[in-house]
Amino acid sequence: MSEIKIDWDGHRRKYQTAMEELNLDFCVLTRVKSITYLTGCFVPWKSYVFLPKEGMGEPELFTVLLDIERIKAEGHLKKVSGWGPLKGFYIEKKLQKTAKKAGLYNPKGRPPRIGVETGLDICVTGQMLSYTEAEFLKKMFPGCELVDFNDKTERIQFIKEPEEIALLRKASEITDIGQETVKKELNERPEGKVFTENEIAGIGTLAMRKAGSNYEWTFTGSQEIGSGYRASWTFNGCTPATNKKVKEGESLLVDLHSEYGCYLGDLSHNYVLGSCPSELKKFNDVYEQLCYALIDNMYPGNTFDECYQNVHKVAEREGCGTDLFFGLGHGIGIIGNESWPVVVPGKDWGSMIFEENMVEIAAVVFNRPGLGGLRLESPTLITKNGAELLPKTSLEVDYV
Fold first, then answer.
1. For residues 304 and 352, is the Cβ–Cβ distance under 8 A?
2. One domain for residues 62 and 117
3. If DSSP codes are grouped into helix, strand and coil, which group holds residue 229?
C-alpha cells in the first residue's frame, strides 16, 4: 500500500458533478481508467461501476466472481458484487436490479438517462462500451437514453491533483532505478557475455519490483526492449522483448514500465554497446536535439500543433524530417490512463494546449531502417515555468 493518500471519495464527487451537468440518473462505467479512478484498486477483469447521481446511494463495482474478496480488501468502494455468464449473475439484470433498488428506475416511470463511455481508444485496455453491452442496457431499461460520458472522463483525469503527481513521481523514481540497474549490468558484463532482450527486460523488472513496483502495466508487451533492426522499423513504437541477442554497435532501446499506488511510470532510454558507428552517432545526436526541443515546447498555453511544428523544424534542419514520428506525447496517470491526450498536429488535436498540472509523456520516436532507432518516453509535469521531467535519467544516449 502507498503512504501517499488519495481522496477516492473526491474522485467519485468529480464524476457525480459531471453527471449533474449532463442531467444523468446514473452511469454504467466500463473504462479501465474510470474503474481504477473510482475503486483505487487493480481490476483486471471485464467490470462495471454503477454510479448513481449524488444522494442516491453508494457506487457499486461489478466484477467477476473469483476476484470479489481481493478487491473488497484492497479497493475503496464499499459495495463490490460479482457477475458472470451464469443464471442469476448476468450483468444486465444485476444493473437493472441495482437501479431499481436505488430508486433510479421504475418500469412505469420516466426512462433513465444513463451515462456510458463510448467511442474508440487506441489502447486495447480502453474498454469502451460495446455494441452488445449497449443493447443489454436498452433491453433492461426500455426507452432509456445512453449519453456519452467519455469527454467528462477524459477531462476529470486530465489535470492531476498534488497527491496524484506525488504518486507519478514515485513511479518515475522506480523506473529510474530500473534503468540504473540495466546500465550497471551492461557496464559490468563479463567479456563475451551477450544479453538477449528478454534478459534485459528481466533485469529491469526485478530491480523495479524490489523498489516497490507492483505491475508491468503496458499492454504492448510488459517491458519493451528493442535492439538493432527491431528498434529501427519506421515509426516503431512497440518493441515487446524477444530472445534476440543484443549486438555491439547497434541501437538498444530500453522502455520500462512501473506502477505504484495504481499510478504509472513509463521511461524509455537508449544505449549503444561497444563502439558506435559514426553515422549512428550523428543520428543519435539529432535525436538528443529533438528531445530538448520537445521539452522546451511543453509549457502552459503552447498548442500541440505549435509544439510539433517547432520540434519537426529541428528534424528538417538536420535532414531527418521523415525519420520523426508525428506523435510527440501521450497521457499518463492511473491504471488504464495511457493515451489521452495524444500530442499530434492537425484539426482534431492540434488546438489543444498544455495546461499547468497536466502530466504528459514526452515522446520522441526517431527511426531510420538500416541505421538505428531511438525512443524517448518520460512522464513530464507541466508547471507554470515549463516542463519538469519526473524521472532523473538523462535524455542523452548512453554509450556503454
1. yes
2. yes
3. helix
SS3 163: helix
Between the two ends of the chain, the Cα-to-Cα distance in Å is: 36
- Cα separation, 264 vs 260, in Å, equals 6
The mean per-residue pLDDT over the stretch 8-23 comes to: 97
Is residue 146 domain-shared with residue 164, that is, in the same domain? no
Q: Are residues 213 and 169 in the same domain?
A: yes
Q: Which residue stretches of the chain are H helix?
A: 8-21, 32-39, 68-74, 91-101, 131-140, 150-158, 162-187, 197-210, 278-296, 304-317
> Is residue 1 predicted with pLDDT exceeding 80?
no
Residues contacting residue 177 through CB under 8 Å, at least 6 positions apart? 207, 208, 210, 211
Residue 129: give the domain boundaries.
Answer: 8-157
Please check whether residues 68 and 151 belong to one and the same domain. Answer: yes
- Which H or E run includes 29? strand 26-29
Cα–Cα distance for residue pair 200/186, rounded to 1 Å: 9
- Looking at the fold, whether 71 and 182 belong to one and the same domain comes out as no
* Coil, helix or strand at residue 12: helix
Q: Please count the structural domains in the chain.
A: 2
Q: Give alpha helix (H) positions in 246-387.
A: 278-296, 304-317
**259 lies in the same domain as 222:** yes
Q: Is the pLDDT of residue 2 over 80?
A: no
Is residue 2 in a domain? no
pLDDT digits (tens, 9 = 90+) for 65-123: 999 999 999 999 999 999 998 888 999 999 999 999 999 999 999 999 999 999 988 88
Give CA 337 to chain center in angstroms.
Answer: 4
Is the separation of the CB atoms in 43 and 35 below 8 Å?
yes
Give the DSSP per-residue string, 42-83.
---SS-EEEEEPTTS---EEEEEGGGHHHHHHHSS-SEEEEE
Torsion of CA 115, 120, 122, 128, to 10 degrees: 40
Instruction: Residue 115: name the closest of 72, 64, 156 by CA.
Output: 156
Same domain for 168 and 153: no
